[in-house]
Amino acid sequence: MTSGSPTTAEKLNADVPWDAFDPDEYIKRNYLEIQPVDRAILTRVRDHFSDHFAKHGGRGGSGIDVGAGPNLYPALAMLPWCGRITLLERSEQNLEYLRGQLSGYDANWDQFWEVLKSGARGKAAAYTGLGADPRARFGEVVREPLPGSLFDLCGKKPAWDIGTMFFVAESITTSLEEFRQGVGCFMNALKPGAPFAAAFMEHSEGYSVGAQDFPARDIDDEEVRTVLEPYAEAGMKVVCLDNPKQLVRHGYTGMILACGRRRKR
Ligand SMILES: C[S@@+](CC[C@H](N)C(=O)[O-])C[C@H]1O[C@@H](n2cnc3c(N)ncnc32)[C@H](O)[C@@H]1O
């Protein structure tokens, strides 16, 4: 498949019934019990953010998790560094799930907080500083989730000081052009110097949540590097991680994590 005009086999983001995304099914399959690959991702993201703020300061700003879906761990990873976190999401069922988590999130997310708290002192201090149960803080900082599309971020002024996007740009379309546009829109939302973490499925053939099929664009770490490099400062790290249990999707080979800082325009 190329980046040219859509073929008949191509499934664009606007063609997909996102409101049919079932958050309970998705959580049951992926986030009820923490997977080794999520643990590995979360550890690296925690260290990346801790190193960034230790070096550059600037806590208390605004964070965004793009295409949050029913996953709270990117927001938990940003929690100590933010005065406000926006969860941008397109699917009404996922928005409803997120709204329901604000006044006290479900117990399965405690395993993810444990990982954030459990690093060496220099990496975990900001997380341990929020205590064993950061639910009150989560409710204050993570306000109403924002209904909307990743692609709308392209036309807006960069407004966020830190950002995450997990399993979104490649998992919402089969089009390489839309994948690249999605990554560009995410990076456009970030202010110069903002630290970011973005995770991707490697070589995904698409996935199902309950009875509903969803599209994916087959990408690899080279593509991730190529698409992110124009937006990132030198020193961005891109790593491939295996998922031995392969629960998140059928038909993929692993996960890719990119951690970096937004380059000045
Ligand atoms: C594979 S899920 C990933 C969810 C979550 N970030 C995670 O880490 O598990 C893809 C998410 O992107 C959302 N989505 C689809 N199209 C979108 C768009 N144009 N803008 C924002 N989110 C979108 C879906 O509703 C879904 O929640």
Automatic annotation (TrEMBL):
SUPFAM superfamilies: S-adenosyl-L-methionine-dependent methyltransferases. InterPro entries: NNMT_TEMT_trans, SAM-dependent_MTases_sf. One of its GO terms (biological process) is methylation. Coiled coil: none annotated. It comes from the Bacteria. Gene3D superfamilies: Vaccinia Virus protein VP39. Keywords: Methyltransferase, S-adenosyl-L-methionine, Transferase. One of its GO terms (molecular function) is methyltransferase activity. This is SCO2525 family SAM-dependent methyltransferase. It comes from Streptomyces phaeoluteigriseus. The lineage of its organism: Bacteria, Bacillati, Actinomycetota, Actinomycetes, Kitasatosporales.
